[in-house]
């Protein structure tokens, strides 16, 4: 059976392997900042374990203070890495209480009450681990199975540290002068090795999952405008059935080729970005915007009547017509044409609605551009209403 020293050295070896792995991952993917933070936190804990092992052989008051400070600091860094990964704001909420607890621990330990220092440190670590588990469970938006395991391991490790503090508290061991050695400490060593190894493996899984999400986002996003692209349109709506309260507006910037020829492609890019910004202003639940390619855009609208869809498309055209792009040749004001396709009560496919919207768009161009046309309104012989008038 392993003795206490062997358990500590096993924990240190496990931590070193984990931190080296994390640093290697970070070097290959520098954007994964939370991986670097995890690696730093584990290294601090490794330093704690090694010094704690030394403290069991040769107790020293100053070494005791360093050991306890490293334990709290290591788990504080891991807590910050969890906040970093999950995008939880307010690092100060974790840092300030932890540093205050570390300061109090240092004071009482300096006064000779090292047992109280251990109790304070174990309480701090329990709180930090509990916070990590709660944050992953509450704020996580990825695979809930992974997050459940992270929460379970964090909670289990927190309980093992809590047991260590409870044993010292119930025995009234306010002054130790040596490293605590009891059943809770031994249990904590085993649990800490197992949980830290498991959390390290899950960190790798979370990094892989985050990389997949970022890669998918990149393939689904137009790099110039930040809008979703045609691939995203197919992914989101390719299998959807478009009912009577769903529609698609196809927009095409008027005379865009001439804009590029006269003003240059950088100005053309500005015009595209301006139109994308206009669409984003009208974004709301049920309204998704896409850049299909070149100067073509599409807006999918859900839970809207024909009239509301037409009004929203017209407002977008009016707003874009008011945009002015400064150029070396003077102020540039562009216009846009739009065509609306609608779903049917019996259900329509994405391709059918796009085909109808495309036909309406070409009708708008034949009508002189700078307008929005709805195929349903044309069927009722309504006049073409311009979305805006050129300045």
Automatic annotation (TrEMBL):
Keywords: Membrane, Transmembrane, Transmembrane helix
Entry's transmembrane regions: 6-27, 34-56, 62-82, 94-113, 119-139, 146-169, 189-206
Gene Ontology, cellular component aspect: plasma membrane
Class of the enzyme per the UniProt entry, highest EC level: transferase
Recorded catalytic activity of this chain's protein: 2 GTP = 3',3'-c-di-GMP + 2 diphosphate
Domain of life: Bacteria
E.C. number: 2.7.7.65
Gene3D superfamilies: 3.30.70.270
Keyword Transmembrane helix appears in the UniProt entry: yes
Domain GGDEF: from-to ranges: 244-377
SUPFAM superfamilies the UniProt entry points to: Nucleotide cyclase
One MF annotation (Gene Ontology) recorded for this entry: diguanylate cyclase activity
Protein name: diguanylate cyclase
Species, as recorded: Mesorhizobium ciceri
